[in-house]
Amino acid sequence: MRIGIQLPTATPEQFQADVAAAKGADSLWTNQLPGGWDALLALGTVGGTQELGTSVIPTYPRHPAVLADQALTLQALSGGRFTLGIGPSHPQVITGQYGLPYTAPARHTREYLEVLRPLLRGEHVKHSGEFFTVDTALTIQADPPPVLIAALGPRMLEVARDLADGTIAVWIRPDTVSDYLVPRLHEGARVAAGVMVAVTNDPDGVREQFARETEPIGTLSAYRAILDRGGISSPADTLIAGSEEVVLREIQRFADAGLTDLVVAPLGDRPRVVDLVTSTARMLEP
Fold it and tell me: Which residues form the Luciferase-like domain (predicted)?
């Protein structure tokens, strides 16, 4: 199982400091938040040899031809280290903030990939569908990056199985990986998950605070559904919190469940979490 670190986007100085602190990780990831930094531009500043990934870029605001151009540019400039994670986001963001119709997210994502993937392969795409009419090709010389989608529901997992290299999930526990995600994907698919991790001697206190901070997440239908499928009442129940031994034991459970990529979002003492998971976790049994 590969160990990645989720990079928050705060200030340029803090971003670069977080990149330097995570030099022992297999991969570095960042996401596209409403009103936040552009994830692709931020990753374009990261040198080195680590894999770079987005977790995730919302599809509705970016035409697939535009995103293909951006992704291939980053793939070329990074020397082939990029993995593109995309997802439909939520109606509260796409319609509530951007004023765009949030129509049929699974069908939209399928058609998005039907345009995106051939463009990433350097093919000329001539497509007329429900959401996109495209007649174009790109000239950027780069290997196509792997594409993961934020697939939590059964229909989105079918799209991931048919058209993507795997999924990147959130708000899950190991049982959700082994019993729900892995059986619905194609053989050899990447199964990535973003997980919050805190090394602390007060796990109950950390969990209670995290529960208060993440309470609105339970109102988002896609997240509520994946929590319910895992028998989880709150996003706080997916938090890994405790001693170093507890953290490593829980990480091992994800490896045993079939997760291929663990993307750790450190809470609290960030340097301690990063050091622990990058120096020790990858030595656990595969």
Answer: 16-234
